[in-house]
Amino acid sequence: MRLYLYLHMIAFAAGCVLDLIIGDPYNIPHPVRAIGSLISALEKKLYISRNGRSDDELNRALRRRGTLLFMTVVILTLSVSAAIVAAAYLIHPCAGAVAEAILTCYILAGRCLCNESMKVSRDLKAGDIDKARFDLSMIVGRDTDKLDEAGIIRAAVETVAENASDGVIAPFIYTFIGGPVAGLLYKAVNTMDSMIAYHNERYEHFGKTAAAADDVLNFIPSRLCALLFCIASFFIPFAHAAEAFRIWRRDRRRHQSPNSAQSESACAGALGIRLGGPCSYKGVPSMHPYLGDDKRPVNVKDIARANIMMFTAAGILMAVLCFAVLILL
Q1: Where are the alpha helices (DSSP H) in 197-278?
Q2: Domain segments of the chain: what residues?
């Protein structure tokens, strides 16, 4: 048993290093993209229109079918990922560790998030605002075609801060505790939340189960991520630890979601900027809550600063977990 624990820890560390070095490869099959394709296919099969149903009948039917989609994705993800890991370990323990390391690299998204957000930063530094809007549209759900430079920077910082939680810290925790099977289960739920859990006419009821599950799974990681941002601010020259903690405590509950404002508010406080405000989704105006104080205008350097905070927070968590394992062993 101890051998497999050692192999798991080695594989986990190797997966983290692989993510830092290569990130998400675009030209080879990716399990999270496969999960996304499965969700899209199931949605086409299970989603229904009104067809003479009353509002209550339609809403109940959509909730049932959304729950069926959720359960199908969860069961298939657990079954396939467990089979891959088990088969690899049956071949040889080292093969199992290699499989774990590769899957862990797929699960974590730190390098990919940094790369995509820094494309936006480079576009702005080059003065190409149209390209910055396009590259930003690849990592955010809001409309980007009319954003000015400040709006682009705020959106990029917000997505780094939010995805530091559900793209790095949360999968980091679940994979550390339960291996790639638990990590991929988390990614499946999070992907369903991002695809079918919008608060609009189409998905309000169909995505209710996925949204609730994502809120539960992210409840602790989102708060831990915010706390890690506050701690990381002690070690980063440009960050303000006291402000990070104060703004987090003040603004963390301002968002409709119980988790979304956690890491964003801590990041806003650490950088001394204000995030949130008006935006739009597919032409429909929306108002995000303001997070942080407007102490200074946002700057293109804030995108890189948010990424530094994300990697510092992940490094602190890695150090704490490794220390805990060494004590237990």
Answers
A1: 208-232, 241-251, 260-271
A2: 2-328
